[in-house]
Amino acid sequence: MSQLNGNVYKFLTPLFFSGVSFCLSFYFCILGVSLFIYSLPIYAFFLLLSLFLFYQTDKNLNRFMKMGVTSFTQYSFYHNCIGIYLILSFVLFGVSVAYVPFYYNGGMLFVWYCAPMSLLCFISFIQSQKRIKVVKKQLQNQNLNSK
Q1: 3-state SS assignment for residue 3
Q2: Distance from C-alpha of 116 to C-alpha of 145, rounded to nearest angstrom
Q3: What are 93-125's pLDDT values in tens digits?
Q4: What's the rounded Cα separation, in Å, for the pair 49 and 45?
Q5: Cβ atoms 103, 111 nearer than 8 A
Q6: Residues 6 or more apart in contact with residue 17 via CB below 8 angstroms
């Protein structure tokens, strides 16, 4: 049986690179350079990689919960993911709505890259909400049993 360790935040590195390439795409769009066409797929790739790593970690933590192993590490992981994915979902949705008026002047790419990613981040937010309720309930049961 593998041990539950504190290294559950491995999804943050691709999320950081996703944010950097997303900011670069804004910068390129403001400059009027068409390089944002190339930086948006990079942003999407890193965000999808981050979501994949989040779901792999979620799967491993769920396996630990089924075996009866719960810890504060699991609670803090889901608590942090709730904040990260909720903010990310709102930001991406806001960007996709903001670029609707510029749909035919390059905004089409921002709308079609940000709207689906916003939905995926919102699904991850909901998944984290569900898991944190289960972890919180199990931690409370452990505290009651230990007293």
Answers
A1: coil
A2: 44
A3: 999 988 888 777 777 888 888 999 999 999 999
A4: 6
A5: yes
A6: 46
